[in-house]
Amino acid sequence: MCILFIYRNPNADIKSYRLIVATNRDETYKRPALSAHYWKKHPECLGGIDMEPGREGGTWLAVSMRGRAAVILNLVNENNVISSAKKSRGPLISNFVTSNDSIEAYLNQLHKENIDGQPYNPYCLVSLDLKNANTYYLSSDAKSTGPKMCDSDIIGIGNSGMDDSYKKVEVGKKEFKQIVQNVNISKQNILIEELINFLKSQTKCLPDPKLQKNYPTTYEELSSIFVSGDEYGTRTHSILLIDGSNQVTFVEETLMSDLTWKRQQFQNELIYNNIS
Hints:
One of its GO terms (biological process) is Golgi organization. By secondary structure, this protein is of the alpha+beta class. It has a single domain, classed as 4-Layer Sandwich (Penicillin V Acylase, Chain A). Helix content is 20%, strand content 32%. The strands form 2 sheets. Strands 3-4-5-6-7-8-9 form a 7-stranded antiparallel beta sheet, covered by helices on one side. Helix 3 packs antiparallel against helix 4.
């Protein structure tokens, strides 16, 4: 399972952040993947790449300097069943950040596909307009009414979706807010370290009946923001910062095969002569 936190400030000035994104990717340790890099065919795009045989080319998070980003999480509840016959969810991100469609058009088309036959395994897709902090949420759940705009300044999402959160998401939102509220860009290095430490939290948020229902045998090890299991756990921490001057900072920490953490930090600037 994965977890995502977002801070929105559409009216950011040159000393503050328009968007702060902090997320963990949880996955089986043996699943092959490339860590974050600029893509050869789309050099304006930045993100890791899934290298699972038969699923190559997708991703869990990506950023385009043209002004958009997205994160995908698995959706787990009693109404959604994983099937190997369905399409991989990873390309939904790579297709989005390289698309010339508007965010609304892209998400509306995905929702139509879900209604027509749900071709993908269950997902929660969060799409971001980096130029104005507009944040959109789309679930593949059969009860979904389509994409919706998220207006809150603090957003938290886990694998149960946005409307029925696990306890660790609600606890995490409060801790995340304390870290990001009123933060000045001059404190960026401190902010990054605080967010990384936040994403590494192993505090168990129990009891959680919903988590226990969805994961009856593993709910205890899944009840913290950082997940540490024998074969499955947190493999990547990602932080995305967009300030009021359209400067982009992307930080990724990845668990390597030797069990050490590799940190990368990328700096760039949003391109304003293209789509949003």
